[in-house]
């Protein structure tokens, strides 16, 4: 494992120091288990090398869409990113992009993505990676790394898929999907929630420290996976605990119709530095929506989350 110097862990003042500390914690999760599998989840290829398989954008009730593009960091990736993500990432912009389905990582190239700024300029892509969201069921968040404009002078405004990037089941092609970029200042919001598939295959793409914990089996009836626009922690950089678990509100509907609010019995998928949480429920009632209050979680840019809610997708 590459050594992490004390210089990179020193305390810094102001917003830049907060950014560095949060990203250091997340990237250390990646570096702690660094292995040759890094190449499987990160691409520096600026051309689309996936053949056109004539796949549709929509099939069987599913549509290949981009749900979110979050301008998380403006020239803010720390030095460690050049080892944990890709060479040259230090000082670059970071933008998580979230897909409507999990993607086939073998069809992902950096050249599949085009970022456009407010002036109409095209951003400069360096690499893209699935890290650290690589657990089973999580392969829908891709971090773009490069130069995508300046927050105040010429910010990024849209992301488009211009290459052939397929869904994990090989049925959809995301080429042509586009989404507006959430600017730098707003904090992270909930983007998606779904009933987690307990049989989802873990492809072993992440290193051991990017493997979040699972829901316990005792007393748990089902789990809802929530996906934030970007990685979230508490203001001090810690993972959420029981206090934050109690702030999640899940609306569920009984089989005979009445709805009620419940809190998760357990909050899981922690300790891996990504943008996913598992809400472990001790009820079999159908989850309808998830809500979370403002001012609790921060992104790597030290922006607090707004009050946020999202509908729960039914199991596929």
Keywords:
eight-stranded mixed β-sheet; Immunoglobulin-like; 2 domains; 316 residues; mainly beta
Order of secondary-structure elements: HHEEEEHEEEEEEEEHEEEEEE
CATH architecture of the largest domain: Sandwich
CATH topology of the largest domain: Immunoglobulin-like
CATH class descriptor name of the largest domain: Mainly Beta
Give the strand line-up of the largest sheet. Answer: 1-7-8-5-4-10-9-6
Care to describe what's here?
The strands form three sheets. This protein has an eight-stranded mixed sheet. The protein contains four helices and 18 strands. The longest helix has 18 residues, at about 15-30. With about 325 residues, the protein is mainly β. It has helices at about 15-30, 40, 80-85, 240-245; strands spanning about 40-45, 60, 60-65, 65-70, 95-100, 115, 125-130, 140-145, 155-160, 180, 190-195, 220-230, 250-255, 260, 265-270, 275-280, 285-290, 310-315. The protein folds into two domains: about 5-45 and about 55-180, Immunoglobulin-like; about 190-315, no CATH class. A hairpin with a 5-residue loop joins strand 13 and strand 14 (about 260). It is globular. The termini are far apart. Mean pLDDT is about 90; it is low at about 1-20 and about 30-35. Helix content is about 10%, strand content about 30%.
Fold blueprint:
Elements: H1 14-31, H2 38-41, E1 42-43, E2 58-59, E3 62-63, E4 66-70, H3 81-84, E5 93-99, E6 113-117, E7 124-129, E8 141-147, E9 156-161, E10 178-182, E11 190-195, E12 222-228, H4 242-245, E13 249-253, E14 259-262, E15 266-268, E16 276-281, E17 286-292, E18 308-313
């Amino acid at each position: 494992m590459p050594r992490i110097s004390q210089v990179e862990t020193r305390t810094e003042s102001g917003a830049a120091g907060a950014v560095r500390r949060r990203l250091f914690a997340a990237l250390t999760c990646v570096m702690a288990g660094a292995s040759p599998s890094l190449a499987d989840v990160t691409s520096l290829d600026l051309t689309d090398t996936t053949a056109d398989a004539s796949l549709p954008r929509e099939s069987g009730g599913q549509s290949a869409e981009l749900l979110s593009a979050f301008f998380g960091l403006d020239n803010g990736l720390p030095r460690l990113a050049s080892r944990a993500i890709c060479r040259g990432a230090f000082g670059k912009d970071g933008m998580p992009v979230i897909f409507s389905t999990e993607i086939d990582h073998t069809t992902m190239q950096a050249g599949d993505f085009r970022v456009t700024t407010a002036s109409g300029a095209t951003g400069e892509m360096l690499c893209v990676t699935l890290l650290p969201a690589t657990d089973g069921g999580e392969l829908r968040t891709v971090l773009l790394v490069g130069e995508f404009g300046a927050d105040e002078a010429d910010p990024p405004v849209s992301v488009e898929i211009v290459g052939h990037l397929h869904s994990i089941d090989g049925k959809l092609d995301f080429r042509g999907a586009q989404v507006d970029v959430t600017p730098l200042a707003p904090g992270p919001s909930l983007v998606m929630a779904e009933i987690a598939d307990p049989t989802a295959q873990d492809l072993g793409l992440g290193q051991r420290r990017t493997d979040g914990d699972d829901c316990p089996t005792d007393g748990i009836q089902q789990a809802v996976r929530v996906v934030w626009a970007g990685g979230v922690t508490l203001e001090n950089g810690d993972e959420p605990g029981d206090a934050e678990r109690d702030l999640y509100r899940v609306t569920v509907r009984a089989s005979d119709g009445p709805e009620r609010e419940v809190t998760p019995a357990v909050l899981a998928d922690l300790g891996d530095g990504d943008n996913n949480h598992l809400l472990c429920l001790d009820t079999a009632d159908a989850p309808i929506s998830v809500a979370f209050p403002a001012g609790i979680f921060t992104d790597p840019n030290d922006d607090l989350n707004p009050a946020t809610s999202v509908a729960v997708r039914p199991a596929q």
